[in-house]
Each structure stands twice: as structure tokens, then as C-alpha cells.
Specification:
- By secondary structure, the protein is α/β, with parallel strands linked by helices.
- Helix content is 46%, strand content 15%.
- The strands form 4 sheets. Strands 5, 6, 7, 11 and 12 form a 5-stranded parallel sheet that branches.
- α3 links the parallel β5 and β6.
- α3 runs parallel beside α9.
- The chain is globular, with a radius of gyration of 24 Å.
- The termini are far apart.
């Protein structure tokens, strides 16, 4: 082959490799945008920006909505959706319920089997006070490790059935994944069972019974990061939460916030 021919072949080969590389990059980019928006398995996480603005989730609100899942409400209204995870009872729930009643706030309590078994009277009080009781699974497992519908449904049904036995009422269709661990498969299974999956847009480390945050730390996090449409996650086991909730609700109200229910959030999102 002549020198000129070698040069032409080299140029053509370079163009082919460039096009192939560019095509692969575009294909990878398209794949990421289309298929990798919801990770195969992940822990729910948030990124915070300026004070008073909504955080970003590791999955967008728009993508979650495809699976009937939510982590935040509208940013157009200063409304808070207050939720509590109830793993067990250690003497703080009565103070929480009293503060909510004083401020006429309806919250959602996500309960597990242990709480239903040991604290049926508190569950009845939640219902009597007008709160929503949601499903947090019976045994609080890592649900991403459950891949078959029968096992997934049993975790949900055992809570739902015991709740109905205690209260003589049907349970709400709200579900919160234990520890915020989720997968596409989990979201799909929950959706097929008629559940709305509820993550959160504001929480703080309040679940260590022997290492509770100070009042100052709690107020700093819960007032400093509050934002329009916030789904707030607190734990009923937190002594700090029981002690500060009355004052915290007052502070939020003074900041111009009101309180809504998850029914109102989902209705507004679907209107």
C-alpha cells in the first residue's frame, strides 16, 4: 500500500473510532437518563441547598410519582406534612399526641407489628384523634432483600390485618420502607398492592434512645431546614421529640407554616 493510501486508511479508521466512541457515549447517556433514574437498590437520601428551599432527593419527585411514591409536596405553599415512624413504645407517644391535639394537627404514624402488639390503646387513640396510621411492615426488615410478591405482601398484610383487628377499621394505603431502603422492585410491588410509598424531605438523627439530640440541636435542624411541602419524618421513640413538639409546632406556625395530611398532598399532586 502506498504512503498516501496508508494515510487515507488511517484517517478513515480514526473517524470510525471517533463515531463509535461518540455513539457509545450518547447511548450510555440515553440509557442513564431512561433506565438509571431509580437505582436498582438504594437508601433514601437528600441534598440540601439554600435555607427555606426544598432539598433534592436521590430520585426526583417526578420519577417517584410513576410508582405512586412521594417525598415532598408542592413548593408553592408553606405546608408541612408531619409523619412519625413507630418501631416500639418507650413512653414518648402520649406527649406527642398531646402536642398534636393542642395544635389541631393531623399526622401520619407508620407502625410496625411490635408497636401494634404492645400498644393497641395508643393505636386506638391515634385513630380517635383523627390521625392516619400507615404501614411500616410487620418485622421492619430490609425490604430490598425481598424479591417475591408473596413475602412482600405478607409483611404488609400482617400489619394491615392486625390494625383492623385492633381498631375495627381499614388501614390507610400509605407505606414507608424501613430505614428508607428501597428498590424499583419494591416500589412496583407496593404500587401493585395499592400502596402509596412515602419517603421524606426532612429528618434528623433522633432514633438513638441513649444518644438523644439536645433541644437546641433539634430546633436548629427542624426549623433551619424546614421548607414548603416538607414531609417531615420524626420518631415516636425520641424523648427530645416528646419534649419539644409543642414548642416546635408553635415555631413552625410563627414561621408561616400550616399542616396538611398525606391525603391532601396526593390529591393535590394528582389534580
Amino acid at each position: 500500500m502506498t504512503t498516501r493510501g496508508k494515510i487515507i486508511v488511517g484517517i478513515v479508521l480514526a473517524l470510525v473510532l471517533f463515531a463509535a466512541g461518540r455513539g457509545a457515549a450518547l447511548l450510555a447517556e440515553e440509557w442513564q437518563e431512561t433506565y438509571a433514574v431509580v437505582p436498582a437498590s438504594s437508601n433514601w437520601g437528600l441534598g440540601f441547598g439554600e435555607t427555606g428551599t426544598q432539598p433534592t432527593g436521590n430520585v426526583s419527585a417526578e420519577e417517584l410519582k410513576k410508582y405512586n411514591a412521594y417525598f415532598v409536596g408542592s413548593d408553592k405553599e408553606k405546608k408541612i406534612y408531619l409523619t412519625f415512624d413507630c418501631g416500639y413504645e418507650n413512653g414518648n407517644t402520649e406527649a406527642i399526641l398531646a402536642a398534636l391535639k393542642k395544635h389541631n394537627v393531623s399526622a401520619t404514624f407508620f407502625v410496625v407489628g411490635h408497636f401494634l402488639e404492645t400498644s393497641p390503646e395508643l393505636v386506638k387513640q391515634m385513630v380517635a384523634d383523627g390521625h392516619t396510621v400507615g404501614n411500616h411492615t410487620y418485622h421492619h426488615p430490609d425490604m430490598t432483600a425481598i424479591s417475591d410478591m408473596a413475602s412482600f405482601q405478607k409483611e404488609m398484610d400482617d400489619v394491615k390485618n392486625l390494625f383492623q383487628e385492633i381498631t375495627d377499621q381499614k388501614m390507610s394505603s400509605y407505606y414507608r420502607p424501613p430505614q428508607g431502603k428501597y428498590s424499583v422492585k419494591n416500589l412496583e410491588m407496593a404500587q401493585k398492592l395499592g400502596y402509596t410509598t412515602c419517603f421524606w424531605s426532612l429528618a434528623y438523627v433522633d432514633w438513638y434512645e441513649d444518644d438523644q439530640p439536645s433541644h437546641e440541636e433539634a430546633f436548629e435542624k427542624l426549623t433551619g431546614r424546614i421548607h414548603p411541602g416538607a414531609i417531615v419524618l420524626l420518631h415516636n421513640t425520641s424523648r427530645t421529640n416528646g419534649e419539644i413538639l409543642d414548642e416546635l409546632l408553635t415555631k413552625w406556625e410563627e414561621m408561616g407554616y400550616s399542616f396538611g395530611t398525606l391525603d391532601e398532598l396526593t390529591a393535590a399532586s394528582n389534580s
